[in-house]
Amino acid sequence: MMRRNEAIAALAAGRDGAISVTAMQAIAAWHAAGQGATDNLDALGCMGSASSLGLGIALARPERNVMVLDGDGCLLMQLGTLVTIAAHAPRNFYHFIFENGRYETSGNQLLPGFGRYDLCRMALAAGYRQALSLQDVGELKNALPGILGAPGPALICLGIAPDEPAPRWPSVTMNEQIQALRARLPLERRQGAKA
Amino acid sequence: MTNTTTTASRASGAEKSVASSTSPARSLDPAALLAAMRAVGITHVITVPDTHQRTLLALLAQTDDPKLITVCTEDEAIGINAGLYIGGARPMLLIQNNGLYACLNTLKAIPLDARVPTFMLIGEHGRDVALPSRENPDLSVRMLEPTLELWKVPFFRLENEMDLSNFERGYKRCQEQGGPLAVLVAAPTGAAASQTNRMEGRT
Question: Is A174 within 8 Å of B114 when comparing Cβ atoms?
Answer without folding.
Answer: yes
